[in-house]
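Residues pack. One example:


***
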Amino acid sequence: MVWYPLGRPVGTTIFPGMQFTAVAIKQFLLRSWTLNDVCCYMPAWFGIIASSFTGLIAYECTLPGNSSSTSIQWMIDLIKGKRSELEGVKWPMVFGLTSPAVECGIFALGMMAIVPAHLMRSVGGGYDNESIAVSAMVMTFYCWVRSLRNDESAWWGALTALAYFYMVAAWGGYIFVLNMVGVHAAFLVAAGRFSNKVYTSYSLFYVIGTTLAIQVPVVGWAPLKSLEQLGPCAVFLAYQLLKVCEIIKGRKQMTRTQLFVLRVKVFASAAVVGVLLIMSLAPKGYFGPFSSRVRGLFVKHTKTGNPLVDSVAEHQPASSRAYFQYLHHVCSLAPVGFFMIFANLSDSSSFLLVWGSAAYFFSHKMVRLILLTAPIGCVLGGIAAGRMFAWCLRQFWDSQEPSSPSPPSPPPTNNTANNASKRGKAKKGKKAAVTPGATEDEFSNLKSSWDNALSSTEGVIVKRTLAVLLILMGYVVGVNFTSYCWKLSNDLSNPTIIVKARLRDGRIIKVDDYREAYWWLRDNTPEDSRIMAWWDYGYQITAIANRTTMADGNTWNHEHIALLGKALTTSEDEAYEIARHMADYVLIWGGGGGDDLAKSPHLARIANSVYRDHCPAGDPTCRAFGFVVSYQSIGS
């Protein structure tokens, strides 16, 4: 039994995707395997899936059709109120795949396969929710960007919803995935990119995805109640209003100004209705609050209001050292790829800007979320490496650059010459007027001069020299990155409860105290014994010692953990009175480092969050906590 004496409502406290996946693989694919073997191999299998979809995202976002515009062109279109439909530059095909998209996909896949931030959750034996959740996340994101390729691909929005449903069943991080798609959908509207394609894709995603998500017991109606998930719901409702406005515009042949006035009226009316609805539901407790972990992303650490969340080391802010440790050279390449997106923009590739910005912000707040930066970092790094590698190869294999799909400029006429002459004379005046034609001609002349210089013999030599240098530098960086990841993979593959130590004479030994302690409990205590220990050891006591525990890493009941913290940090007499009603044995871990003595201030803070008299009045955050008599006199 776990969580004695309360028990644990398993159906409403776990995300069942991992367990269902393991059983499905065992029942339908590997009948001769044991379930334990399936669970041990699953992280590696899903690591392959995650790496593959990461490569597909990079490939999709660098296709010619998804690299046809720029951020400047988007701003011009937003000002003009219309979209420029441009075709991407056509590069040679490689086995039916377009270059440089294929190079970007391969580099992104390779980086994702070995980057330490991903290895943490894809090492064999590391059976955890994140092991399959990363695969579900990148699968959802790939389906989303694929649905935005063209008008015929909007039905991929339904596949996005199915992938999202799997993500919901796998991990609580589904909230991040939902909000990323919702924020990107809102970003497209703000950038003037709302279209029937975007509307259909997002509507399919939200309706199907939300309908399926609420079927997961641990989630329930949270997508329609939780403040963390109502943002995408608001975007969905806004999309419906925008679609109504577009239908009315088409019927009445409205101008841009008339459409703007119509949208203001529609959204103002909807806002009034929304405010009234919120005012009627909020007093009834319909809306759920932000969770402690989410609050911890936006407020200073240790001020989330939940000391249990603050006590977890993985919830500490990330440092630059942590980024380099888990991402290595991806840290250097990803920003280059990020800025390359601005020059190769589309509805699909713009998602990488939203994803990258959000992943960096949240991972900076909580070191555990560096896990979320691995896929987007590898996508952006793969785009940077792939585009540069493809450019280097073209300097030796292509005799000329591919022609642009835009029509050629007409030859100058007499009127053009006269206009140029007039513009030249106008420059001599005090207030020379700069016409759009003059700006375009000057830009065209500058671009033509630049292209001619690059096409000259000297320009070709310079480009080929630069290409050789880039390839050599990339080789050195790649070897260094691979060597680092391979070395770190050995450390990540070691079991966490068996550690190495060095004796004074230099000999290396294995410290197996954890398992030996659990085996002692298993062999020397009755089978129905109840073990009191801090929740960090709950899963291990259950799995290895096969004994009943007070709490474990599920941490579903804060009050019960607070009582456990009180029993482990209060006076001996009071601790005994608590423990004798709950447990038969108490397990305390000592020996230095991160043992229970080092953790005890956190235990005291958690206890004090429920039992307000646990720490003296003069020390509400238990910062002066210690096992000394004088501490009890503080504030008295």
In short: The CA atoms of residues 255 and 261 lie 10 Å apart. The first helix runs from residue 17 to 28. Strands lie at 93-94, 97-98, 499-502, 508-511, 530-532, 548-549, 585-586. The chain is about 60% helix and 5% strand.
